[in-house]
Amino acid sequence: MSRNYYISHMNDSLKIELEMLLALKELLLKFLLGKENKFEAGVIMRKNQEPIAVIGAGSWGSALALVLADNNHEVRLWSHNEEQVKEINEFHTNKKYLPEIKLPGLITGYGSLPAALDGITNIILAVPTKAIREVIGKMREVLSGPITITHVSKGIEPDTLLRISEMIKEEMPADLLRDIVVLSGPSHAEEVSLRHPTTVTVSSENMAAAEKIQDLFINHNFRVYTNSDVIGVEIGGALKNIIALAAGITDGLGYGDNAKAALITRGLAEIARLGTKMGANPLTFAGLAGIGDLIVTCTSVHSRNWRAGNMLGKGKSLDEVLDSMGMVVEGVRTTKAAFQLAKKYEVKMPIATALYDVLFNGKDAKAAADVLMSRGKTHEMEDLVNILEERNE
Ligand SMILES: NC(=O)c1ccc[n+]([C@@H]2O[C@H](COP(=O)([O-])OP(=O)(O)OC[C@H]3O[C@@H](n4cnc5c(N)ncnc54)[C@H](O)[C@@H]3O)[C@@H](O)[C@H]2O)c1
Ligand SMILES: O=P(O)(O)OC[C@H](O)CO
């Protein structure tokens, strides 16, 4: 017999008591299964002991700070912009980057780097690739003990052609650096901050360190996988941005869905070829840091790279586009790096090369698309197969 049948046959005081017990049971179940927002459950839960520093209070740093706070961590969110720090602490907002969002009380804004890093062992580094060396330079001046840096940036440095973990190793003295972890995957800050379901992957040369970071971030909105291929995860995250710029351009030109699917697929082929030649596991490109991030960045209106490409396709100049964005468009610098990497590793990267010509040689976007479409005949998989065979020799 149903719960409602029993309830309808009880006297009023028993009914009230039973309803109260059932409500309490549901609350407890929600809490135990982690379905309850943890700040609401904060009366019962103690906050986790060691604070975590998030360096960079742009869209991604702020969204990740929010995930950590949802997991009951105390977060020190550092910004080099004092006005922004004031806004975070007084109004619990960061309107330029996440206009819709109220930041939880566990997040405190810091303008002083020594104060933000005092006693910290876990740092989430969330600044654009171009700022990495400068920011690490400032951090090493104030750190006293070894730290784990989890970087969440998606780029490659032009000219040195270094991945971000390699730049960090160059800048941070070994005695201050315990581990480097990279967090990547299809994850727009706008959706993460609304607590929409998101999946990412973390990778490190020390998988125990990656697993610790997985534990810090994972919750029922933000599912974190691990992957032991640091090169693949970093290359996939960086290079998807240039394909998203190209996808934005074709959308701006009005070329439609076939063209975009072609860019995503052939873009993935370029990324897999280069990444595999650089030592990545080709399977990584079938995962979150590969096809996953490529899909979201090429198709989402949240993507700064897609939006920048879209404006270029509609006829705006690169300077006009970058001036109007107000946020980092990583793909522009990474296109330079990819163009140079293709030469260095002797890998065919026709999309990256066409994009390089549009961005830096003033080539008309339609003409660049024509060049791509009228190349000589090829086999879809041949180049990747050759690279894999070379590696096995
Ligand atoms: N926004 C996203 O959804 C998202 C998701 C995943 C990864 N990422 C990656 O995260 C990185 C950061 O992106 P974002 O979206 O937060 O960028 P953003 O433009 O929103 O914010 C960048 C932040 O870095 C700060 N900054 C810039 N130069 C600095 C410097 N020299 N010193 C100190 N601070 C500096 C800015 O003031 C700003 O607070 C990028 O590599 C991006 O590709 C972004
Ligand atoms: O807004 P974008 O183009 O920098 O992309 C953000 C994230 O990397 C998507 O995963």
TrEMBL record:
Glycerol-3-phosphate dehydrogenase NAD-dependent C-terminal domain residues: 229-368
Keyword Cytoplasm set for record: yes
Entry-linked Pfam families: NAD_Gly3P_dh_C, NAD_Gly3P_dh_N
Classification via HAMAP family: NAD_Glyc3P_dehydrog
Protein name in UniProt: Glycerol-3-phosphate dehydrogenase [NAD(P)+]
UniProt-annotated binding residues for sn-glycerol 3-phosphate: K154, G185, S187, K240, D293, S303, R304, N305
Domain Glycerol-3-phosphate dehydrogenase NAD-dependent N-terminal: 52-209
